[in-house]
Amino acid sequence: MQEVDWSRLKAQELRVLANENAVVILPVASIEQHGPHLPTMTDTRLGYEVAIRAARMAYDRRPTVVTPVVWSGLSEHHMPYGGTLTLSHATFRAVVRDLIDAITRHGFRDILISNSHGGNIIAMQQIIDELAPQVNATLVGTTYPMEAGQALNDLLEDQKTIQHACEAETSMMMALEPDLVDSSDLAALANNSDEGPTFLKAGKASYRWRPFTHLTGNGVAGIPEKSTPEKGEAMLEVSAAALADMIADPQTWAAPSDRRGTELAGVPFRR
Ligand SMILES: [Zn+2]
After folding, report:
1. Which of 61-65, 104-108, 205-209 has the lowest mean pLDDT?
2. 43 C-alpha to center of ligand 1: Å?
3. Domain residues for 248?
């Protein structure tokens, strides 16, 4: 099988991949509490797996390589439960910026930041907004359950969407790390809330920070009772397939269009 893990390849093999204009996946994740039944590595493990599978699925259409996961994300909202490691926004931004800089210095031009943790979503978009005009590369950011969308949601029985330490994450961890999942009493862990990130809302559509303890006492958001490894394996596959299709689509990496033309309202523009 084609090796797609950057850290398992040799320098000259990565130089060849840069010459072939391979896509680089830079996974970003977290180490944080995932309820009483899942390990703190959950987002990091799932983000790695989805990225590696996506690279393998995409490879024949577009060579793809996956850097090690940036496990240190933004998890301040999980700190009250213990077990959680978090960076400040400034440090997270600096880490991602420096890694993108290193990747582009080797000649890679198409970079997918592949996020597996809700707390990183807004920061990831801010980093892309800031860096995209500055770097000689196309930057795309994705959060895999959002890209997989309905294909992933259709596999859930008791939830409408993926949440946290829930039916989806528990199932996927059962598939990958069964020895690390305590499935002795999943029914007792239910914290039914399909409101998801709406716990961060004020008013009708305004934002107010809240720790995760505002939403759940045991650190679980969702209903993990019907989690199975088979369901988890299917979720990993549809998530990876969604990312692979995006990676292989030339439109994902197309240069921005410039519709100004030579004149706008009679005022000539210089290019
Ligand atoms: Zn998670």
Report:
1. 205-209
2. 5
3. 6-254
